[in-house]
Amino acid sequence: MNTRRMVSSLVLALFVAMLLAAPVCSAAAQSPDKPTKMLMKVDVVDPNLFWSYPYISRDGKARIPAAIQIVWSTTNGLSSETGTVVVAKKDRGQLEITTDKDAFVDIEVQVVDAKKVILGKASLQVRNVGKEIAFAVYPPEYTSPSIEMQ
Of all helices (H) and strands (E), which one includes residue 40? Predict the structure, then answer.
């Protein structure tokens, strides 16, 4: 019986020691990483056509694009930031984003008109490892009427 009590006491002591050490280990693991810069590049394909093309927005109005912007946030997601990358008539631009190294970053590239109405967008999530991310924005190949059976 003494051996059994001694083993139980030893297991209990080991369990308590693990519980006491867990906050110290997790605090060390959650220390902020070194800030890392990520470069977002946007190229406009066929800029003369792209910037003059009349896009139809959800409200049914024809709108001309005025800028391409990037909205981004880290996945803790409490706030987002917006930066204009390309302005009308230009064919490329870039934006530098700084987050913790290896942070997940939610990115949305938006084409907007002069009133900031979104004409088109694309979203993705990437891990910031300090690399360059490139996007191409281009006009549609063609437009055609919508036809539905009634």
Answer: strand 35-44
Rounded mean pLDDT, 41-59: 95
pTM of the entire predicted model: 0.74
d(C-alpha 35, C-alpha 49), whole Å: 39
For residues 88, 92, 98, 101, the Cα torsion angle rounded to the nearest 10 degrees is: 140
Number of helices and strands in the chain (H, E)? 2, 9
Two tokens, residue 65? 């694009």
Whole-number Å distance between alpha carbons of 89 and 150: 42
| H-assigned helices in 37-135 | 47-52
Kindly report, residue by residue over 58-74, the tens digit of the pLDDT.
899 999 999 999 999 98
- For residues 69 and 67, what is the distance between their CA atoms, to the nearest angstrom? 6
Whether the CB-CB separation of 117 and 111 falls below 8 Å is answered with no
